[in-house]
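Technical annex, item 7. During the second reporting period the consortium partners agreed on a shared format for inverse folding records so that results from different sites could be compared directly. Each record opens with the tokenized structure and is followed by the designed sequence. A conforming record, contributed by the partner at site C, is shown below for reference.
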């Protein structure tokens, strides 16, 4: 069951995905690294979204919890150039 969390950028629906239910590879927008099959993670989408699947993003749980501490341009891979 999804739950709603309030963040600075609005309300988000969150659904936990167990490792056993994770069967595809996704890219986490928080760290730009892969979430491989079998890894527990979560899916987040705007709470006011009425079923538009294109707004759903798969996140590492730790990346989701730390997203308020990251700047909006810090979503990059380890090898990506640093700006600023």
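Designed sequence (site C submission):
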């Amino acid at each position: 069951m999804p739950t709603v969390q309030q963040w600075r950028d609005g309300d988000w629906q969150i659904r936990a995905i167990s490792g056993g239910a994770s069967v595809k590879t996704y890219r986490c927008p928080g760290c730009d690294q892969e979430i491989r099959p079998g890894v527990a993670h979560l899916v987040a989408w705007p709470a006011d979204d009425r079923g538009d699947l294109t707004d759903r993003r798969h996140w590492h749980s730790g990346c989701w919890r730390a997203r308020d501490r990251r700047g909006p341009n810090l979503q990059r891979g380890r090898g990506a150039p640093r700006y600023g």
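The mean pLDDT is 81. Residues 31 and 75 are 5 Å apart (CA to CA). All partners now use this format for quarterly exchanges.
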